[in-house]
Amino acid sequence: GRESKLSGEGEAFIKASQLTGLDPIFLLALAAQESGWKTSKLHSRKNNPYSIAMYDENPECGYILGDEFGSGIVNGAVWIYDHYYCNGQITLYDMIYGPQEYSSAKDDWIGGITDIMERSYKYILNN
């Protein structure tokens, strides 16, 4: 029920999921939460949908993850898999309260992502 500039990026989320085993709905929710549904000019310019290395004090330092947003979706998912999942940080809680902190937003971050995931699953199941 929301217009999203992420429309048309489905294949990239599927490819990212196939390469990493991460849930494509999780990857969509994380990208939506972090990039404002791809409305952030900084995220779009760096093709960095997951805010990797975009720290609050200097978001411009964030990584450039590809030549286009779709490759950023895939490359960023691989980065998340390598730096979090493979190190045992496999839940949202682990990602922000574990040894390597993903977000400083804490519970608001978890709530935002889980809300997008829940709405996405409901949409899929009802269509």
How does this structure look, described?
This protein is mostly helical. The chain has 6 helices and no strands. The radius of gyration is 14 Å and the shape is globular.
**SSE pattern:** HHHHHH
Share of residues in strands? under 5%
Count every beta strand, where a strand is a DSSP E run of 2 or more residues.
Answer: 0
For the biggest sheet, the summary is: none
Sheet/helix structural class:
mainly alpha
Helical residues, percent: 55-70%
Uncertain residue segments: none
Shape: globular
Rg on CA atoms, Å: 14 Å
Mean of residue pLDDT values? 90
What is the count of helical runs?
Answer: 6
Oligomerization: single chain
Q: Span between N and C termini?
A: 12 Å
